Amino acid sequence: MISDVIRAAVEREVGNMTHATILIQRWNLQCDDLDRAADALKVDRISDDVMLRLGLHRNQED
Amino acid sequence: MLPGRVLDVGALVDIAVAKTNHSRSIAALCLYRGGGLCIPTTALTLVYSIVPLATKVELFDLISSSAVQVDDLTAGKVPDIAEILDGSSDITAGHVILCARATQWPILTDRPGILRNLDPAILVDPLPEQN
To answer: What's the N-to-C CA distance of chain B in angstroms?
Structure first.
């Protein structure tokens, strides 16, 4: 069923996001690193709210 | 389009030993934004053979994600890789290029010229040069 496909996709994406945040913290990546990567990949930068939840702070001038 | 990268030897070494944070950031962002990564087993084998034991856990943590495809070199891929190599002995390079063709993702690599010599049409994402 289509609902199962959607549920699986959501679970997969949430799982990937969780794994990614674990890696970001384990690897001690900083806002600048992640912003540069987002720009290189042409994807949205991680929001300030999420950065704060990860314990990361953007410089005011960024 | 969801972001993705094929990780060549240089990128995997960078992730393992953190010469820079570039490859780790690219890998984490690909996963965070719902994309994926492809790691050819030939490249992974080479990296496992050269990085310090303590750093292998970083690669293990990465490949444990369901969004990371670890691509086996199977018998069925031999003819395609052989065609890419066209006499070259760099099996890893051929495997990396085959993965990039299959996924349509650029290759995160420190040897763009070598890969382009084997396949001028291949997409590469060069690692920043280190001084």
So the answer is: 33
